[in-house]
């Protein structure tokens, strides 16, 4: 892969990689990263394999495996492939994809083109939130090789970024998840093999194609190599997006974002469908292995600090109510189960001293898990269960009527 | 011989109407999602289907016998193209219309898996048209239409189907499943939930 | 090696919880709080393992589902 390194530029050092260009325009992009080398499919595949890059949209699926799932079939049936860059970013706590598209749109475009070229892609789409349509369209207009990329506005809902919901939206149907008998890589948009990557994943691919897998792994940990963008919220501050090395300590990340970790009772990792890491766990690393014992993953890099003075159950109840309202409304167990969970959690949060409430929440969480056509109920159940486990002391305080935290 | 065919034709017509009425009733009851008459739901569905098939068989006999009957003066084309009949063309035509539509229902039912639930349901909705048309055909064309027993029979059929239909239109008809269905349908008209900023939930609490 | 299993897949986007499948396959399916089919196998979610002897009943359930929300995926 060393042959791919552009001679006129040096690879970014430190953890500032995706965000290392001083401006978003194409000329600055070329001056910072050099031109995108022509990608040989086999070389790109092996580089991605060696890099260990995992999807940055939340699913953490190895990027090379998605790529490898398509070519054999494509060759066998002579069918062309659809490649989609996904920046729907429906999770309200996340803004890293929008930030990336504002700061470094050309890396995303490069990644999309590299993947499409290696697969002989027939159609390429960028599916982005309305707030960044302008920035992305400007970037696409700056280069000749991006003319075939179709820019589409993402639906504004929590589930809009789910892979089959994106495909539905691009096909002109309702942007909701579907029950699919086939994998998207077998049959997706218009029945073609469809490859969907988060835009941050594509930007990393653009850098790996240039500087190689060894460079990529020079930051991060063995189980979370490279850098990642995280959206950090908490302590009453507006959210910030920062680029960190994989496996960075949670407390260090908060300090870097200007939030004192000492004032937090816990951190919600992975957003509304994530899990809590209690402050008592110390400086836990943002790494798959370290987070596993809390049931969390680095996911899409969403971190929300819970102010120790505020009641976490009140916050969790607001989130559960929001999630119950954001279901696509398609699957009975999810529609009914999520609103039931939200109502039980809100009774607990409001201070109803019924000792059966936590058990009822656990029962409902168990009841909805796995019983939807997407993972929406599973994620919501995970969040609720994590709240009960990590904030057990608060649950007991509520049942005893002794919670003295702020509930407003 | 002719008299026998004539009697058979009339009799099977009345029986077919009775069976179709039962099938329509069972179809509506099946849709409520409740077990009824001590039968589980799937058995109710099977009875609905089998009664409909039996009715179709009686209807076939009704058609064939009357084709052989010189009095009715039927031609094959009258089974397919309505309002061409020699005798009472309008009332006979209603029967033809009902047969044509019924053929669509009967053909799509066993092929439900291949035509898809949407087509199946759309075609099945035709029965709400077929049934009254068939009843009118019986009243207008039937030799026994003036007879007291036939009037009573027609009234009972109509009252039964109409009351089932009224129940179908009330809120308590289907005890389950409506939550999901309501939300899905409402969703299409719903404006997208407003995204504000990442701190929205924090501000709302 | 475990024996290849056949799975009864529930398409929740189509299911209205009408309950026919739970009557035909009481060994496999119960009904949840809202009437939707609930696998008796813990954690089975949307894909319910079907034993060999229940395959016929499962096919029957697929054929009779008023919402066509069931699919039988035979173990190979």
UniProtKB/TrEMBL annotation, chain A:
Recorded hits in SUPFAM superfamilies, A to Z, give: Nqo1 FMN-binding domain-like (SSF142019), Nqo1 middle domain-like (SSF142984), Nqo1C-terminal domain-like (SSF140490)
- Domain (NADH-ubiquinone oxidoreductase 51kDa subunit iron-sulphur binding) ranges: 313-358
Q: What family is reported?
A: Belongs to the complex I 51 kDa subunit family.
**Do the record's keywords include Aminoacyl-tRNA synthetase?**
no
Matching entries from PANTHER family are given as: NADH-QUINONE OXIDOREDUCTASE SUBUNIT F (PTHR43578)
The organism's place on the tree of life at top rank: Bacteria
Q: Which UniProt keywords apply?
A: 4Fe-4S, Iron, Iron-sulfur, Metal-binding
Q: For this protein, what is any one GO molecular function term?
A: 4 iron, 4 sulfur cluster binding
One Pfam family of this chain: NADH_4Fe-4S
The protein depicted here goes by the name NADH-ubiquinone oxidoreductase 51kDa subunit iron-sulphur binding domain-containing protein
- Lineage start: Bacteria, Bacillati, Actinomycetota, Actinomycetes, Micrococcales
UniProtKB/TrEMBL annotation, chain B:
Q: Which Pfam families does the entry mention?
A: Ferric_reduct (PF01794)
Q: How does it sit in the membrane?
A: Multi-pass membrane protein
Which keywords appear in this protein's UniProt record, sorted alphabetically? Membrane, Transmembrane, Transmembrane helix
Q: Where is this region: Disordered?
A: 184-205
InterPro entries cross-referenced by the UniProt entry? Fe3_Rdtase_TM_dom
Membrane-spanning parts: 12-30, 51-68, 88-107, 119-140, 146-167
Asked whether the keyword Transmembrane is assigned, the reply is yes
- In which residue ranges is the amino acid composition biased (Basic and acidic residues)? 189-205
- The residue ranges of the Ferric oxidoreductase domain are 12-134
Please provide one cellular component term from the Gene Ontology annotations of this protein: membrane
Q: Where does this protein reside within or beyond the cell? A: Membrane
Protein name as catalogued: Iron reductase
Automatic annotation (TrEMBL), chain C:
UniProt cross-references to Gene3D superfamilies, sorted A to Z: 3.30.70.20
> Which Pfam families does the record match to this protein?
Fer4_15 (PF13459)
Name this protein carries in UniProt: Ferredoxin
């Amino acid at each position: 892969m060393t042959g791919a390194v552009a001679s006129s530029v040096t690879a970014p050092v430190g953890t500032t990689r995706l965000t290392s260009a001083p401006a978003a325009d194409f000329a600055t992009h070329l001056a910072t990263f050099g031109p995108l080398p022509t990608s040989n499919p086999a070389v790109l595949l092996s580089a991605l394999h060696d890099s260990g890059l995992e999807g940055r949209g939340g699913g953490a699926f190895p990027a090379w495996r998605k790529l490898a799932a398509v070519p054999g079939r494509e060759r066998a049936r002579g069918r062309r492939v659809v490649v989609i860059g996904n920046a729907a970013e429906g999770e309200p706590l996340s803004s890293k994809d929008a930030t990336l598209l504002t700061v470094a749109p050309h890396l995303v475009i490069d990644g999309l083109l590299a993947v499409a070229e290696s697969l002989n892609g027939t159609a390429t789409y960028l599916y982005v939130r309305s707030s960044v349509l302008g920035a992305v369209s400007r970037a696409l207009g700056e280069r000749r090789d991006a003319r075939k990329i179709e820019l589409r506005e993402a639906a504004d809902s929590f589930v809009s970024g789910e892979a089959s919901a994106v495909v539905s939206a691009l096909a002109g149907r309702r942007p909701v998840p579907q029950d699919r008998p086939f994998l998207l890589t077998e049959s997706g948009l218009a029945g073609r093999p469809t490859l969907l990557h988060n835009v941050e994943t594509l930007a990393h691919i653009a850098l790996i194609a240039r500087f190689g897998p060894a460079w990529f792994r020079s930051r991060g940990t063995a189980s979370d190599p490279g850098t990642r963008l995280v959206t950090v919220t908490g302590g009453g501050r507006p959210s910030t997006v920062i680029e960190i090395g994989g496996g960075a300590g949670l407390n260090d990340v908060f300090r870097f974002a200007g939030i004192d970790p000492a004032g937090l009772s816990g951190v919600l990792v992975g957003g509304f469908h994530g899990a809590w890491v209690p402050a008592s766990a110390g400086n836990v690393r943002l790494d798959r292995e370290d987070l596993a014992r809390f049931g969390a993953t680095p996911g899409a890099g969403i971190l929300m600090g819970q102010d120790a003075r505020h009641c976490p159950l009140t916050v969790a109840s607001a989130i559960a109510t929001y999630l119950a309202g954001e279901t696509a409304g398609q699957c009975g167990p999810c529609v009914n189960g999520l609103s039931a969970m939200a109502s039980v959690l809100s009774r607990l949060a409001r201070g109803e001293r019924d000792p059966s409430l936590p058990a009822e929440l656990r029962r409902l969480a168990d009841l909805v898990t796995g019983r939807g056509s997407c993972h929406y109920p599973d994620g919501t159940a995970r969040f609720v269960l994590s709240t009960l486990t990590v904030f057990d002391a608060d649950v007991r305080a509520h049942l005893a009527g002794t919670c003295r935290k702020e509930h407003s | 011989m002719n008299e026998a065919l004539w009697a058979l034709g009339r009799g099977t017509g009345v029986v077919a109407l009775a069976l179709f009425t039962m099938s329509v009733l069972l179809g509506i009851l099946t849709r409520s999602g409740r077990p009824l008459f001590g039968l589980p739901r799937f058995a109710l569905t099977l009875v609905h289907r089998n009664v409909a098939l039996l009715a179709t068989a009686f209807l076939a006999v009704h058609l064939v016998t009357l084709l052989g009957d010189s009095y009715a003066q039927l031609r094959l084309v009258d089974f397919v193209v309505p309002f061409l009949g020699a005798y009472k063309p309008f009332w006979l035509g209603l029967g033809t219309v009902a047969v044509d539509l019924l053929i669509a229902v009967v053909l799509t039912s066993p092929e439900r898996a291949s035509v898809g639930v949407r087509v199946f349901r759309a075609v099945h909705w035709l029965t709400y048209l077929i049934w009254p048309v068939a009843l009118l055909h019986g009243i207008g064309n039937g030799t026994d239409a003036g007879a007291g027993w036939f009037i009573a029979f027609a009234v009972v059929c109509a009252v039964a189907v109409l009351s089932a239909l009224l129940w179908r239109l009330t809120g308590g008809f289907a005890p389950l499943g409506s939550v999901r269905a309501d939300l899905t349908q409402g969703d299409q008209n719903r404006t997208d939930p407003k995204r504000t900023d990442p701190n929205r939930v924090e501000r709302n609490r | 090696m475990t024996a290849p299993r056949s799975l009864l897949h529930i398409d929740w986007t189509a299911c209205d919880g009408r309950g026919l499948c739970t009557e035909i396959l009481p060994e496999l399916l119960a009904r949840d709080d809202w009437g939707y089919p609930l696998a008796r196998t813990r954690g089975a979610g949307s894909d319910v393992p079907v034993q060999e002897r229940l395959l016929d009943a499962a096919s029957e359930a697929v054929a009779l589902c008023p919402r066509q929300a069931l699919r039988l995926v035979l173990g190979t």
